[in-house]
Amino acid sequence: MKTLKYSRQRESIKKCLMGRHDHPTADGVYASIREEFPNISLGTVYRNLNLLVELGEIQKLSCGDGKDRFDGVTTPHYHFLCRQCGAVTDLPLKPMPEAERYAEEATGARVDSHVIYMYGICPGCLKE
Asked: Cα 9 to the chain's mean position, in Å?
């Protein structure tokens, strides 16, 4: 496996995501990182986000809205997406390995992981 050279920018991107729970897009990460690295390019942010995903250090969420979002939490968990404001939040649910077992029974396949997105209207939008 190729050894990666240390990058302050990459570490800053990872640290930024670890401190956030709003699942930002690459543009959102870029806006945050520019505070520390004003000359960083959007391309550098995209490359580092994709590298961190490849390394398994962050997650890329493709939620069906055409915008990839990024999550610093790599342990299995589920997400809620608000159809009105677009917010993506973690769901406080325990992982459900039985869903994989049910899928295996239904298909005869071997399932090794799953992703769950739930869609609806968030509490903030319901108040409006």
From this structure: 19
* Residue type at 81 in one-letter notation: L
Determine the Cα–Cα distance for residues 49 and 9; give it in Å rounded to an integer: 11
Among residues 85, 52, 96, which one has the least CA distance to residue 71?
52
**Contacts of 77 by beta carbon, 8 Å cutoff, 6+ apart:** 90, 91, 93, 95
Q: Residue 124 has which token pair?
A: 């903030």
Question: Beta strand pairing status for 78-82 and 88-91?
Answer: antiparallel
pLDDT at 65: 79
Best CA proximity match to 34, nearest among 57, 13, 5: 13
Distance CA 54, CA 98 (A): 27
* pLDDT tens per residue across span 48-101: 999 999 999 999 999 887 889 999 999 999 999 999 999 999 999 999 999 999
